[in-house]
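Lay summary. Proteins are chains of building blocks that fold into shapes, and those shapes determine what they do. In this project we predict the shape from the chain. Here is one chain we studied, written as its sequence of building blocks.
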Amino acid sequence: MVPTSQEILDATFNVLAMLYEQNGKRCYRQLFGASQVRFRMIDHHFAHAVSAYAYSGFLDSAILVIDGRGSWQATSIWHGYDGQLSHVLTVPWPNSLGLFYASMTSHLGFRPNSDEWKVMGLAPYGQSGIDISNLIVPEDSPYWVNAENFQIFSQNGRTHYWVPHARSEKN
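And here is the predicted shape, written in a compact code that computers can read:
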């Protein structure tokens, strides 16, 4: 039986996670020397969810984590109740709203993964009329980002994103 692309991605992630965990321990020991410290690695999105829920002050909460990419996850939804978190849904990377937003930020001439706040602040001053349906479909369940339309590359130590031109709705 031939493995599916998702099975291959899952297996690759598990190997990379194991290597990342071992590298974290090695880096700690290089910086601080041998110690009796015990390590416990936790999932990236789980860490975000715990942080949000623990300091929320609510007994019952819905927690939404939207990330560019954290442990190959783009979005996750959690339910917090009585001090416990339950995982509800994960949207895997590259189906990422963070990738979409960083790409749009870069496309507008700003620094991706840094200047998104500027784009957000300027958004109310823009005009509608751009068709981005070839880039993102919010009606899909839960949503769909056409990651094939995004190209990511590094040059001179900076990450660059390229997005094909969105179509004008006026044409």
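What the prediction tells us: Residues 94-171 form one domain.
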